[in-house]
UniProtKB/TrEMBL annotation:
NCBIfam families the UniProt entry points to: PSII_PsbP
Protein name stated in the entry: PsbP domain-containing protein 7, chloroplastic isoform X1
Transmembrane region(s): 44-70
Biological process according to GO: photosynthesis
Domain PsbP C-terminal: from-to ranges: 88-270
Organism: Ziziphus jujuba
GO CC, alphabetical: extrinsic component of membrane; photosystem II oxygen evolving complex
Alphabetized Pfam families for the sequence: PsbP (PF01789)
Superkingdom field: Eukaryota
Length: 273
């Protein structure tokens, strides 16, 4: 796994509030909206009528996201956060590669990946064969998807890479969660081949899904060099000849601001059926 993660890591590293005129200050917000929450939760569970579909068809001024937020777990179980942000998070689902995860709703997709995907589709549609000396090659360790705050340089982002591995490849062969985390750290530093890069393991844990028979290794670590200091949270898992790696990275200077988001992202990463 060391060489796979080394290539993966090196690739990945590359409004005002308006006050309402109808505020009821005599009751807490939870008390005011309790009847609405109960009704909305029941509508989600038993099915949404045609009139409700009109309301849910567009997120008018954030109203739909607010309503779904009244029953966040039910709404997320129905995967409605793929369309509407719920509790400040959206969901990405990749049906081709078979994974999903949540990310902050105000983050946007990496435009470079979108452009490359569009170019690939255009080449696939083209009737002309590609030039012999310019055959496009896809880097197998290129991120499938990446999200980050708009207008930033990419130092703060979350991305997912899917790499081919032998069918019998198992991460647990490296040991427990701590041993897997240490193997990742060794892969980053290159066993001393890159003395200018220092990496340190902070925490490593195992999350198991017995129903899908998948083990998720969640790893938090720091990487430093003379030119940068980063804080990372990664998730690794393997299935059917594929190694999945989610990596969320941030400059150490903003880690305190994104810590909760990163752990939420990591814990939401799962393989789909």
């Amino acid at each position: 796994m060391a060489r796979y993660f080394h290539r993966i890591y090196m690739n990945q590293s590359s409004g005002d509030k308006k006050e309402s005129n109808f505020q009821d200050t005599s009751r807490l917000p939870a008390e005011q909206f309790a009847p609405l929450a109960t009704t909305f939760r029941r509508r989600l569970l038993v099915g949404i009528g045609s009139a409700s579909l009109v309301a849910l068809g567009a997120d008018f001024g954030g109203v739909t996201s607010f309503l779904l937020g009244l029953s966040p777990e039910t709404s997320r179980n129905l995967k409605l956060d793929v369309i509407y942000p719920i509790g400040g998070y959206s969901r990405y689902i990749d049906t081709n590669q078979g994974f999903e995860f949540m990310y902050p709703a105000n983050w946007v997709g990496d435009q470079r990946l979108l452009y490359r995907a569009a170019e690939k589709k255009e080449l696939e549609r083209s009737l002309d064969p590609p030039p012999i000396n310019n055959t496009p090659r896809r880097n197998v360790n290129e991120p499938i998807v990446a999200f980050g705050p708009p207008g930033t340089s990419g130092e703060l982002n979350v991305s997912v890479i899917v790499s081919p591995v032998p069918l019998d490849f198992k991460i647990e062969a490296f040991g427990g969660a701590k041993e897997v985390g240490e193997s990742v750290i060794r892969s980053i530093t290159g066993s001393g081949k890159r003395p200018d890069v220092k990496a340190s393991l902070i925490e490593s844990s195992l999350r198991e899904d017995s129903e899908k028979n998948v083990k998720y290794y969640e790893i938090e670590f720091k990487v430093e060099s003379p030119s940068f200091r980063r804080h990372n949270v990664a998730v690794c898992c393997a299935r059917s000849g594929r190694l999945y790696t989610l990596n969320a990275q941030a400059p150490e200077s903003v880690w305190a601001e994104v810590k909760l988001d990163f752990h939420r992202i990591a814990h939401s990463f799962t393989l789909t059926s």
